[in-house]
Design a protein that fits this description.
Pfam families: DUF7041. By secondary structure, this protein is mostly helical. It is built from 11 helices and 2 strands. α2 packs parallel to α5 and α9 runs antiparallel to α11.
Length: 235
């Protein structure tokens, strides 16, 4: 039987279970008077040291441990299940933030503040941020690679500024006195312009913005006749 009385188990790291298990295994290897190698012994140490809320996510594993390798089985399930539940918690936390009348960069700052204590990866923050943007802006940003949340916010700000300017121009022309019948057609197409027309103008502007954002040669882009970006990648 292994001597386990001198093992000092590190405090569980809720934000990074994988790191905690790595530290735990280092503790097992450096245990006095000899390393702890038996899976059942490591499993027992793990069970009595994980927080109750974490234990609840793997209750079935604790109540009926694996007979072959109980420690590795418990370790894998804790990392998998708690990581998934943590991601869901973060998604719920950030999903309450909406763009509304804010600039995209303002929305991102709010989301970052809400996420700062949760060790949120930028890839997840970017995914949740993009979901709050208008579809036409999403179509631009999802075609750019690589992309960070900060760069996405800068490009989204400029894209929306251009889109709003296009819509305002159409509205102003149709609100003047003595309008022609053609202006009635423009009124009917206003929503279409809001979604599509700005792509023709935004192309060169977006490429210029990306040159500034990424600090290198602007990416190439191609649009079809509907103003939709078909391809946009960094060189």
């Amino acid at each position: 039987m292994e001597d386990v009385s001198v093992v000092k188990i590190p405090i569980f790291i809720s934000s990074d279970p994988s790191l905690w298990f790595t530290m735990l295994e280092s503790t097992f290897e450096s245990a006095i008077s000899k390393p702890i190698t038996e899976s059942r012994t490591k499993y027992n140490h793990c069970v009595v040291n994980i927080p109750p809320d974490i234990a609840m996510t793997v209750r079935d594993i604790i109540m009926s441990p694996d007979t072959t390798d109980p420690y590795d089985n418990l370790k894998n399930e804790v990392i998998s299940r708690y990581g998934e539940s943590k991601s869901q918690e973060i998604r719920r936390l950030l999903a309450v933030e909406q763009l509304s009348d804010r600039k995209p960069s303002e929305l991102l700052r709010v989301m970052q503040r809400r996420a700062e204590n949760h060790n949120v990866a930028d890839s997840l923050l970017l995914e949740l941020f993009l979901q709050q943007l208008p579809p036409n802006v999403q179509s631009i940003l999802t075609s750019i690679s690589p992309l960070t949340s900060q760069n996405a916010a800068k490009i989204a700000d400029k894209s929306l500024d251009i889109s709003h300017a296009q819509v305002s121009a159409v509205s102003d022309s149709c609100s003047r006195p003595n309008v022609t019948p053609d202006c009635e057609l423009l009124k009917e197409l206003k929503n279409y312009f809001a979604k599509k027309l700005h792509f023709y103008v935004v192309r060169e502007v977006i490429l210029g913005i990306m040159s500034l954002v990424f600090g290198r040669k602007a990416p190439s882009a191609k649009m079809n006749c509907f103003g939709t970006i078909e391809y946009l990648t960094l060189k």
